[in-house]
Amino acid sequence: MAKEFLVIGAGRFGSSVARTLYRQGYDVMVVDKDEALIQQISGEITNAVKADATSEASLNALGIKDFDAVVIAIGDDIQASIMAAILVVEMGAKKTLAKAQNEIQGKVLSKIGINKVVFPERDMGQKLAHSLIAPTIIDMIELSDYYSVVEVSAPEEMIGQTLLKLNLRARYGVSVIALRRNNGGQTIISPVAEDLIEADDIIVAIGENKQLKKLGWI
Predict the structure, then answer these.
(1) CATH code of the domain made up of 4-118
(2) Of 16, 67, 58, whose CA–CA distance to 37 is shortest?
(3) What is the model's pTM?
(4) Residue 137: per-residue pLDDT
(5) 8 pairs with which residues across the strands?
(6) Rounded to a whole number, what is the distance in angstroms from the first to the last CA of the chain?
(7) Is 137 helix (H, G, I), strand (E, B) or coil?
(8) Is 120 helix (H, G, I), strand (E, B) or coil?
């Protein structure tokens, strides 16, 4: 049976999450109190419902416990986001994720019992800033304040060298966890010392931020 997801809020973030899940073959219901937004997305997901997510009766009618996960994607109305989160958690949602505008809202959502809090605007801003500082960066995931996973275009000076010769782990404490060949679409997971860095390769690495910075990778 396909997983079922409930997305509360049909703004840019919520609709993007909903469309992506639906395109991956999952059943997706979107709830929003804005009729125009519901009409806009109704043909692109499994079901779209006009409802007030801060109403206990409205959420009860949806059967919160039946969904594999609930995503609270309410935009600028922080009070509505928190109220919906409280209700969803109290109704026994299996898994919850919520969008936060700032750190304070994020802390409140976590205290309520939301399983995962995301900061789309902050994270996108950080990625943009890093891409301006280090143009080789393709993507970056901050694991903590001190460690990150990065995807970078192979620097010219590393092309033609083996991981053994580069010795990134000993020199910088940075581990290459994958190599993606752009020329053939192949991905090498857990590459070995003899693997060669080729032109147009994408390097996926994990390490301490200060060491990644020395490499120019953040």
Answers:
(1) 3.40.50.720
(2) 16
(3) 0.65
(4) 76
(5) 31, 72
(6) 41
(7) strand
(8) helix
Cβ atoms 43, 69 nearer than 8 A: no
3-class secondary structure, 87:
helix
Phi-psi region of 48 (alpha: psi -120 to 50; beta: other; left: phi over 0): beta
Cβ-in-10-Å burial (0-12, 13-18, 19+) of 177 comes to middle
The phi, psi pair for 66, rounded to 5°, reads -80, -15
Note the Cα 153 to chain centre separation in Å.
21
Instruction: Give residue for tokens 């001190």.
Output: 146
Rounded CA Rg of the chain: 21
Dump pLDDT digits (tens) for 114-160.
Answer: 999 988 877 777 666 666 666 677 787 778 778 889 999 999 999 99
Q: Which residues contact 111 (CB under 8 A, 6 or more apart)?
A: none
- C-alpha 2/C-alpha 49 separation (Å) is 20
| Helix segments in the chain, DSSP class H | 12-23, 35-41, 56-62, 78-90, 103-112, 120-133, 163-166, 168-172, 209-214
What are the pLDDT digits (tens) for 149-203? 999 999 999 999 999 999 999 999 999 999 998 766 788 999 999 999 999 899 9
Report the percent of the chain where pLDDT is more than 70.
94
User: In the chain, where are the structural domains located?
Assistant: 4-118, 123-214
Q: What is the pLDDT of residues 24-60, one digit of tens each?
A: 899 999 999 999 999 999 999 999 999 999 999 999 9
Place of tokens 């779209």: 48
Judge if 4-118 and 123-214 fold alike in CATH terms. no
Averaged over 79-97, what is the pLDDT? 95
Architecture of the domain spanning 123-214: 2-Layer Sandwich (3.30)
